[in-house]
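Exercise 7. Given the encoded structure of a 223-residue chain, write a plausible sequence.
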């Protein structure tokens, strides 16, 4: 059976994807870079190092890129982060999986200081024994580095772990690490965007209600 569950946080346990997109769009606009909100929104879930060139052609390590990235963080933490709320049953789901004997670890592209606050908002700081952030990986999602780092912290091989996320970038990162994925719709993506997930649920409340029939309760596929 599976031994570990790796949780994305933004859009999975906390309703934050729109907030991230607005913070990015505002930071771009302040620097005189016109980027449509919808384009940014569909890139949320990537690390900032990949999102920035994907939507604007600007590298994060350039002088203007560093300015935009820094300003995005300021806008997000001061304007949006204090207003964020967890999705229904976020804590209950994590607690239920721990009660099944599973190791639960955060596998997030968020920066460490933001991740700590997001975990508190989700109400799971005391339930997640370990957490990986963008600081723990050379490459962000959809590269598999963060998932692999989370596997190390969970002390579990890829075949014994499930990831729970909400974006195509979670699905791709997990697949590239050899980890099966459960996807949530609450992050704003369609089922067709989440193709490759072993199962798709509306959000934490939906998986919690059906956990006994979910991949969590099934024997893992033999490789």
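Solution.
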């Amino acid at each position: 059976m599976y031994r570990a569950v790796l949780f994305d946080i933004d859009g999975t346990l906390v309703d934050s994807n729109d907030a991230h997109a607005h913070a990015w769009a505002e930071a771009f606009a302040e620097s005189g870079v016109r980027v449509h909100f919808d384009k940014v929104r569909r890139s949320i879930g990537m690390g900032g190092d990949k999102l920035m060139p994907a939507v604007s052609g600007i590298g994060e390590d350039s002088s203007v890129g560093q300015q935009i990235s820094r300003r995005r963080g300021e806008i997000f933490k001061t304007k949006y982060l204090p207003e964020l709320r967890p999705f229904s049953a976020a804590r209950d789901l994590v607690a239920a999986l721990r009660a099944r004997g599973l190791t639960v670890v955060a596998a997030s592209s968020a920066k460490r200081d933001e991740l700590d606050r997001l975990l508190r908002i989700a109400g799971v700081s005391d339930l997640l024994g370990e957490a990986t952030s963008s600081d723990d990986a050379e490459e962000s999602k959809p590269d598999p580095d963060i998932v692999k780092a989370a596997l190390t912290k969970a002390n579990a091989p890829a075949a014994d772990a499930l990831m729970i996320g909400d974006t195509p970038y979670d699905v791709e990162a997990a697949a590239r690490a050899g980890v099966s994925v459960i996807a949530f719709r609450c992050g704003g993506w369609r089922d067709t965007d989440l193709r490759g997930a072993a199962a798709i649920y509306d959000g934490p409340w939906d998986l919690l209600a059906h956990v006994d029939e979910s991949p969590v309760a099934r024997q893992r596929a033999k490789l």
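Remark. The chain is about 40% helix and 10% strand. Students should compare their own answers with the one above.
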